[in-house]
């Protein structure tokens, strides 16, 4: 979730840093009349600069995690912690006294449509229009505010990825911004605080939802005269400029916005792309924060979820029988169990007996129970997480343990993954 950082006075010895074994061969010297004025080196996406005894650190810790190559994948809270601790150890950085001057945080979300559909529909954020920028070959849209910049762009296009990856981020220019949001973050050590990440997610979701988008599927011929006027006014960024507006004019703008959104909802054909992105931003924030909300009555259940290793323990004892079945078999089949009556008692001894009136024999239920042993933990856990739509503004969270994460990873690379 965290990407770019800027520290103008890194709490580290400039002499020790200059001679650090990871950096000592990469310094570029800036001098005048033989006097060394500045030194600078790049290290896997990070830039260290020394002037006199002052040390600056800038760059993407997300890229650093990927050896300086890219930042188009996910970057979780745990990974942020690992990077911060690694940097502290490698370069003997005093985290408590290294004050952050800029901080950029955001999410990459994979979309079922091309990001340009959304980008071409940008209108304004609370009266401030978006501008199209090009920087080092990267095309992005941004909206400048007094304390931060909203950025949104096609991350997949930037790194030539097949997937439709949209990047949404806030670049905080003045750290006072976080105090206004109730987030305590001012020094590097604060990035090790688990509690800030859900709040980062809440801020991202809130600011995305404040952006006004057009709807490209609208056909003007379908609108009556009043609706056409509302739509044409609404899609014009100049309409929403709030400078020098009276209180009554501000109320008129709010009523126009409500009418504009109603027109979009009424005449939209196909999916609501803005809603899709908003939902995916929200859930991706949960994934990166490594927290999941469930209802109060299910918290205990999730924490005590019966999570088994995906490689069955009984495979060790009965692997020879499974190997005798058709190629690719992973479970003892009904036929194999029926041909080995001793397995019925052994494998059903700790399970509820079938008492239903049915023509199926016990070997059928034993074989199905074995499959359920593997599938139920992940199915039940996934169902509990998705049953109650997560909200980044609630505080009742459950932290998934490593076994639960392992079980849920079953759906990675599929359309059913909760980590999309």
Summarize the structure.
With 420 residues, this protein is of the alpha+beta class. It has helices at 14-18, 61-65, 77-91, 115-119, 155-158, 176-180, 196-209, 225-234, 247-267, 273-289, 299-303, 314-323, 334-339, 341-348, 362-387, 402-408, and strands at 2-7, 28-32, 35-43, 46-51, 54-60, 102-110, 122-125, 128-129, 131-135, 138-144, 148-154, 165-172, 211-213, 292-293, 397-398.
- Beta-strand residue fraction: 15-25%
Low-confidence stretches: 293-316, 392-397
Across the major sheet, the strand order is 2-3-4-5-1-6-12-11-10-9
Query: In DSSP terms, counting alpha (H) and pi (I) runs of 4 or more, how many helices?
Result: 16
Helix share, percent: 25-40%
Tally of extended strands? Answer: 15
The 3D shape can be described as: flat
Cα distance spanning the termini: 14 Å
Total separate domains: 3
Please state the structural category. alpha+beta
Using only CA atoms, what is the Rg? 28 Å
Break the fold down into its secondary structure elements and pairings.
Layout: E1 2-7, H1 14-18, E2 28-32, E3 35-43, E4 46-51, E5 54-60, H2 61-65, H3 77-91, E6 102-110, H4 115-119, E7 122-125, E8 128-129, E9 131-135, E10 138-144, E11 148-154, H5 155-158, E12 165-172, H6 176-180, H7 196-209, E13 211-213, H8 225-234, H9 247-267, H10 273-289, E14 292-293, H11 299-303, H12 314-323, H13 334-339, H14 341-348, H15 362-387, E15 397-398, H16 402-408
Antiparallel strand pairs: 1-5, 1-6, 2-3, 3-4, 4-5, 6-12, 7-8, 7-13, 9-10, 10-11, 11-12, 14-15
């Amino acid at each position: 979730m965290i990407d770019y950082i800027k520290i103008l006075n890194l709490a580290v010895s400039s002499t020790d840093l200059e001679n650090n074994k990871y950096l000592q061969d990469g310094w570029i010297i800036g001098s005048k009349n033989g006097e060394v004025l500045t030194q600078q080196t790049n290290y896997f996406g990070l830039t260290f600069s020394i002037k006199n005894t002052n040390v600056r650190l800038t760059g993407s810790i997300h890229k650093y995690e990927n050896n300086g190559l890219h930042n188009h994948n996910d970057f979780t809270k745990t990974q942020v912690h690992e990077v911060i601790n690694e940097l502290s150890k490698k370069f003997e950085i005093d985290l408590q006294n290294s004050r952050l001057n800029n901080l950029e945080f955001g999410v990459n979300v994979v979309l079922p449509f091309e990001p340009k559909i959304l980008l071409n529909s940008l209108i304004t954020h609370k009266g401030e229009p978006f501008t199209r920028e090009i920087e080092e070959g990267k095309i992005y849209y941004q909206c400048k505010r007094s304390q931060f910049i909203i950025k949104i762009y096609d991350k997949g296009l930037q790194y030539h990825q097949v997937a439709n990856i949209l990047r949404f981020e806030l670049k905080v220019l003045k750290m006072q911004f976080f105090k206004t949001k109730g987030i305590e973050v001012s020094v590097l050590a604060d990035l090790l605080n688990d509690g800030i990440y859900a709040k980062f997610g809440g801020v991202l979701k809130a600011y995305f939802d404040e952006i006004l988008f057009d709807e490209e599927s609208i056909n003007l011929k379908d609108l009556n005269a009043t609706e056409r006027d509302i739509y044409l006014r609404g899609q014009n960024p100049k309409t929403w400029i709030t400078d020098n507006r009276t209180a009554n004019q501000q109320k008129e703008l709010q009523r126009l916005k409500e009418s504009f959104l109603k027109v979009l909802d009424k005449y939209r054909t196909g999916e609501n792309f803005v809603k899709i992105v908003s939902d995916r931003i929200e859930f991706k924030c949960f994934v990166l924060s490594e927290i999941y909300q469930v209802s109060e009555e299910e918290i205990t259940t999730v924490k005590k979820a019966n999570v088994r290793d995906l490689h069955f323990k009984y495979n060790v004892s009965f692997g020879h029988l499974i190997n005798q079945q058709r190629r690719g078999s992973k479970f003892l089949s009904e036929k194999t169990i029926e041909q080995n009556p001793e397995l019925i008692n052994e494998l059903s001894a700790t399970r509820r007996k079938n008492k239903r009136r049915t023509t199926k024999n016990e070997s059928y239920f034993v074989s199905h129970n074995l499959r359920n042993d593997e599938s139920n933990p992940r199915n039940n856990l996934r169902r509990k997480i998705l049953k109650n739509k997560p909200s980044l503004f609630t505080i009742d969270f459950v932290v998934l343990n490593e076994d639960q994460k392992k079980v849920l990873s079953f759906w990675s690379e599929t359309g059913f993954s909760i980590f999309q």
